């Protein structure tokens, strides 16, 4: 691991101007490319405090052996140069938004003499127009089958096209009028390309104009008594309308826009894009990528937006046809990047007209953004579940943990402890259990912290570990039965009967040391302990001065993150429940003679503090356990407060 100070340039030698920079490894290979408004400020941030950097950024600066830069005159020029360098050098620490090969698209080979329509999966190529992606290949084939009666273009492969040209007979589609049969000369190249151009115009959003044109031709044919042709045009219009019905109208004003949203955690991010043309969703794309954070990035979302727009539309511009714009009139994002004006100018240059880059605030566009965000979250969840449900991946994770931590056996049972509170109030803890890499929710436990509530997270961790293992330690030393985990009276597993192979605590060295000390005091020697720090995903072993760093692509690290995140979720849910209950009854705290039990009875009877405040003395007195004197005291205490004042006291308390 290289020391970044060995190649750090002198601060005075770095220009305070916009530009693009490259980090190279000791062998001279470019490993990262970035841009900056101020090269001096950006590059100095990489070397100021390496320990505070995002894990991937820290790995990059410690892998590099040199840094160099190029000054440019404008931020738009910096965007273009950054994209070109990323494409040229393909740096390992830059994320590339390559199209997912699993998404099927409808491809039109415009570069061929007789363009072909077909379902395609794979990287984008020049000279080919793409429509989609679609969720399923059958959806493309169904849409294509509907449209071929209106736009009878070639769909066969090159071999089939050549063979039918040699034998002089068209294929079945040519006989049933779903292909114009250019292979046997029924139409020439120009006529066939005109059919394909109309097909592309329809899928590009010019649907209403196409329908109106066919309706006019149908009326003209009818007036000329060409009833067979009119009937054919009528069926064509019906086919177009059925194809249009498959694409829901989401924006009634005919908006052309791309809507972008993200879902992410500390290490990965999911991106979803909805392509809206003519107010209809014409396609959807998604990626799951590793997160990269620059040292001086303001927010995670703005950085994701910045990198996505520059790379995605740069790639689209390279493969776009000259008559097709790769950029819509609007790009809707969840948060504007720092250099939003420069990105908007660059997108406008790619389109050839003004492009608006903005965050939707209200109305249909805001509702559509929320839909795309839900899709991003769902895609991210599915990505994690695919990894979690993979038996091979779980086995690899457990084996990696055993090797990395030096355990005697794989940690088939893992327990994790997390603390939740707000500034020391309502301190609670959770304990979650994973067996064979899967959550065992029936054995989850939650704790209300008692003695250590005011002493901080380290003391709270120690209390939870002591309470969890005290009974186990006592019973394990006294029982002599052959099945120590089973209650002989009920035949069911005892509570906390089985110790984990690995105990994970949320935190760094101090938390891990506290848990290990408690286990040592209790005489528990068969449980390994580690701490997992949230920010940099470091694994801390008790008494070790330095943490262990697991590879970012490690299945072991992914398993530890899932265990820690589940413990955090369970703890936060309990904390919110406890805090909500306390805030609900806090307005009754100052009433003499009213204890916690009767407060709970009152709230349960009336359903809410608002209804209790509106109740009369007689109605309050009807509650079991509430006498006339207490009812009078409750009514007087609440009636003297305005609803606004009552709410304010609830919040403050």
From TrEMBL:
It is found in: Cytoplasm. Pfam families: GIY-YIG, HHH, UVR, UvrC_RNaseH, UvrC_RNaseH_dom. InterPro entries: GIY-YIG_endonuc, GIY-YIG_endonuc_sf, GIY-YIG_UvrC_Cho, HhH_motif, Hlx-hairpin-Hlx_DNA-bd_motif, RuvA_2-like, UVR_dom, UVR_dom_sf. It comes from the Bacteria. Residues 16-95 form the GIY-YIG domain. Residues 473-493 are annotated as: Disordered. GO terms for molecular function: DNA binding; excinuclease ABC activity. Its main location: cytoplasm. Residues 259-519 form the UvrC family homology region profile domain. GO terms for cellular component: cytoplasm; excinuclease repair complex. Gene3D superfamilies: 5' to 3' exonuclease, C-terminal subdomain, GIY-YIG endonuclease, UVR domain, UvrC, RNAse H endonuclease domain. Residues 208-243 form the UVR domain. The UvrABC repair system catalyzes the recognition and processing of DNA lesions. UvrC both incises the 5' and 3' sides of the lesion. The N-terminal half is responsible for the 3' incision and the C-terminal half is responsible for the 5' incision. Interacts with UvrB in an incision complex. Belongs to the UvrC family. HAMAP family: UvrC (MF_00203). This is UvrABC system protein C.
